[in-house]
């Protein structure tokens, strides 16, 4: 699988570990940065990864910041993105099965390395169940289409 990675400074250490984990598993990784622990701004990297996923340049994306919250807020602004902030394997699995998540968000300050690897593994192994869940994603797409530039939809 071709997987885009992105993090800010707070997520950099875990992003690097996840990169090695994915490479060992035989995945192709596209690293959109950041490349150090120097303070930077998470929306920059969430945007890069979300666009790569949205345009179909990669199969999936993984974003890491301190909590995962900022990354998920930004990624979900982009067309076709279903970014899921997951704290455990169950959430990761369900975000694939029911929500067809295409970006996984993690918090470096929230989950340890081993738990993060288990979450990533569970997320990559699970598949969208379709069926009744497809209709719900279609409703999300409708909401997305009707989104206005200003004001509420
Ligand atoms: C950086 O200190 C922190 O705010 C950021 O990594 C992230 O947790 C934001 O949601």
Structure report:
The chain has 153 residues and is an alpha/beta fold. The chain has a single domain (2-128), classed as Ribose 5-phosphate Isomerase B, Chain: A (3-Layer(aba) Sandwich). Helix content is 45%, strand content 16%. The chain has 6 helices and 5 strands. The protein has a 5-stranded parallel sheet, with helices on both faces. The chain is globular. The termini are far apart. The mean pLDDT is 96. The structure holds D-ribose.
Structural class: alpha/beta
Number of domains: 1
CATH architecture: 3-Layer(aba) Sandwich
Q: Which fold name fills CATH's third level, the topology?
A: Ribose 5-phosphate Isomerase B, Chain: A
Contiguous helical run count = 6
Strand content: 15-25%
Specify the CATH class: Alpha Beta
Q: By CATH's scheme, which homologous superfamily applies?
A: Sugar-phosphate isomerase, RpiB/LacA/LacB
* Poorly predicted parts: none
Major pleated sheet? 5 strands, parallel
Distance between the termini: 35 Å
Mean pLDDT: 96
Ligands in the structure?
Answer: D-ribose
Strand order in the largest sheet: 2-1-3-5-4
């Amino acid at each position: 699988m071709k997987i885009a990675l992105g993090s800010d400074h707070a997520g950099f250490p875990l992003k690097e570990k996840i990169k090695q984990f994915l490479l060992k598993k035989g995945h192709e990784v596209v690293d959109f940065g950041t490349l150090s622990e120097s303070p930077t701004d998470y929306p920059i990297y969430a945007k890069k990864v979300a666009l790569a996923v949205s345009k179909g340049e990669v199969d999936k994306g993984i974003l890491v910041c301190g909590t995962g919250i900022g990354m998920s807020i930004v990624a979900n602004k982009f067309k076709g993105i279903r970014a899921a902030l997951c704290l455990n394997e169950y959430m990761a699995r369900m975000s694939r099965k029911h929500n067809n998540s295409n970006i996984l968000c993690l918090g470096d300050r929230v989950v340890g390395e081993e738990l993060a690897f288990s979450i990533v593994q569970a997320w990559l192994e699970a598949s969208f169940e379709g069926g009744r869940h497809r209709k719900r994603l279609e409703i999300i797409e409708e909401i997305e289409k009707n989104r206005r530039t200003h004001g509420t939809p």
